[in-house]
Amino acid sequence: MDQALPLIFMGLMGVAMLAYVVLDGFDLGVGLLLPLVDDADKDRMIASIGPFWDANETWLVLGAGILLVAFPHAHGVVLTALYLPVAFMLIGLILRGVAFDFRVKAHADHKALWNRAFVAGSALAAFAQGFMLGKYILGFAGGLWPFLFATLIGLCLMAGYALLGATWLLMKTGPALKQRAAGWARRALWGTALGLAAVSVATPLVSERIFDKWFAMPEFILLLQVPLATAVLLLVADRRLKRLCQQDLPRPWEPFACAVGLFVLAAIGLAYSLYPYLVVDRLTAWQAAAAPESLKFILVGVVITLPAIIAYTVYVYRVFWGEAGELRYE
Amino acid sequence: MSALADPLLLARLQFAANISFHILFPSINMALAWVLLYFKLRGRANDGARWQAAYGTWVKVFALSFALGVVSGVTMSFQFGTNWPGYMQRVGNIAGPLLGYEVLTAFFLEATFLGVMLFGRGRVSERMHLLATVLVAVGTSLSAFWILALNSWMQTPAGYVMIDGQAHAASWWAVIFNPSFPYRLTHMLLASGLTVAFLLAGLSSYRRLRGERSTEVAATLRTGVLLAAALIPVQIFIGDLHGLNTLEHQPAKIAAMEAIWDTERGADLRLFAWPDERTRSNRFEITIPDAASLILTHHWNGELRGLNSFPDHPPVAPLFFAFRIMVGVGLLMLAVSWLAAWQTLRRGEPTALVQRGLLVMTFSGWLAVLAGWYTTEIGRQPWLVYGVLKTADAASDVPASMIALSLGLYLTLYAVLIVAYVWVLFYMARKAGTAQGTVEGV
Fold it and tell me: Best of A43, A62, A80, A303 to disrupt the B interface by mutation (most B CBs within 10 Å)?
């Protein structure tokens, strides 16, 4: 049991991080797309994420929380290596979070200013998260090339979030905005694909161990399903979006599902590459884990509360299902 | 400029800035969640329109404070790792699960159902909306429970054993219900109640002084005044118990709060003094004979240990003044709220003069909360976890320039946000007033 605990928590952390990326991803994506529309549509777009974003952001706290709770030794290593990008992400998240509330409550003259803060915060947080992912994949290496690679991943993750945001809007807004969103989603799709390709190429190059894991013979055939499925989802999403640009189709949720599928596949690939390391080829889950009695104590809480959290999260998404109304309280 | 080159000092400043900014918002929301539930329940009665209006006004304050609390709370959770990696390495086995339980039991609950509370009208039943309000209030209080359990453990650690330099939990019950926890939790919840009471009374007085006659503003003014008047004596009583508990477990903190340098019997209460660490004595003392002993030991002749008898002790002057500010604000709260309550009960509402006083004291809760937290947190120094881990040993080796850069950004952002928050609160109060006037036509 004690040996399995770090693995259980590594899995939980992965799931929490993936949940965060998908859920807050569409919130941040909506923020990124905001400058493209007029004021009325800005309100509509923000209304579509209004009831959710607080809870969505909580998954980041859970993901980082598990890192802190279960792997206190990795927590310090990872977060001090990423000191500045973390600071910039946090400043982005602060700006996004407060602007969301201030823009409807402040004086009308200041609304445009808070809108800009909302966009800037979303962009900064999204970019910083991608940048951190890039640095993380390269094992926190320094120098110009790692910096440029991390910058590329930062930009690609912005595209990925824009994809989630735009496909989210396909489900939540009226026809006019929908067709424009399909166009944005299509462009963002290719930025996302570039990012997926860049990570897929970089990880085996960085680590011989990862290279061997992917390209050893029997596994290779099985693992090939991941990039193949990714390619299929990309093509399906692109064709669907192309038609949505021209006409209003049934099942507007399909592109969003494709986008989520892409992120899930990417997470599976990344998890397979990294396992069992928390810091690439440096620190394993077991080396970084907290004491078993602490992990057991928190596991009890996880087993009881996580199903409840998922249940009421699903409930709230159902309550606010369908096209978003106007953003107003009461 | 040497301060800018000291990473430890910068990291401490950054954490102090963050935690000071953060605490402002939970200290409103903990109690405001329950006040909203009260408004909601009264709004269900036949003549509940004014209470429904009050709910509508104050739920916006809640949402805004919640957003600011969340984003600064996220920032704090990351700063454990970025600025204090030694903290998690040394006591992560204890701190981690407590923080984890906060997220699992409280944070998700309040963040999820706040969405229903804010946007759910018309989409969920009235009963479900009431349930959401209850769940948000429960979540907010649970949050306080876990965070204060951790903070109290850092002040009075219990239920652990040290193995290879790391703290391991021996009894979770003893960890959570450590000796100072009940006092600290009660003291903080009451502080939140007082912060909200004065916020309610202050903003309502503002609307009333601007000539608004709605029944909503009369209701919230009355609620704020009576709540403040009821809570403040309880808070003084609990604060006294908390002091006794601190004397038992952290006598050096008490000695610094009272600026007592040498151990004495029948110690005088220093009403004012200028503690000087170089000469290890006080200048400009104004004292009440034996009163410190009476208050802290409940005996005229009780013995209080002096700072000179401890190998290390917290910085004296900041503690001495922070404590006096907290107590001073508390006494002012007592005077103003009782006067206002007396007038309210006799003639329906406080006089214009007292309303002005309440307006001035709108954010008095924040001042007392901050001063109180400085007392307790600076009072723990030089320890991060009392007797277990020194603050200096938990710091990261991140270059000072990086900490300085991020500190500058945080400080700028926080300054702008505080101004914006206060400004928007008053703007919302003005707007609520005009909307009310047209709806009710009074």
Answer: A80
- Residue environment code for A102-119, b if the CB has 16+ CB neighbours within 10 A, otherwise e: bbbbbeeebbeebbebbb
Domain of residue B74 covers 20-237+351-372+392-441
CA dist., res. B20 & res. B414, Å (int): 10
CA A249 to chain centre: 27
Q: Is B397–A80 a contact, with Cβ atoms under 8 angstroms apart?
A: yes
Tell me, yes or no, if B82 comes closer than 8 A to chain A by beta carbon.
yes
For residue B67, is pLDDT > 70?
A: yes
Would you say residue B233 has pLDDT above 60? yes
**pTM of this prediction?**
0.88
Distance from CA of B119 to the nearest CA of A (A): 5
- A138 is a domain residue: yes
List, run by run, the mean pLDDT of 10-residue segments along chain A (330 residues): 82 90 92 87 84 85 84 80 88 89 81 90 94 88 87 92 91 80 88 88 82 80 84 86 76 85 88 81 81 86 89 86 59
Chain A residues with CB inside 8 Å of B146's CB?
Answer: none
Residue A196 lies in a domain: yes
Q: What is the mean pLDDT of residues B152-158?
A: 93
Are B99 and A55 within 8 A, CB to CB? no
Which residue in the set B59, B93, B119 is minimally distant from A291, CB to CB?
B93
Contact B75 A293 (CB under 8 A): no
Start-to-end C-alpha separation, chain B: 60
The total domain count for chain A is 1
CA distance B252 to B258: 10
Residue A29, domain member (yes or no): yes
β-strand pairing of B264-265 with B269-276: unpaired
**Number of structural domains chain B divides into:** 1
Region B415-424: mean pLDDT is 91
- Which residues on chain B are in Cβ contact (under 8 Å) with A64? 77-78, 81
Interface size between A and B, measured as CB pairs under 8 A: 218
CA-CA distance, B226 to A178, in Å (whole number)?
52
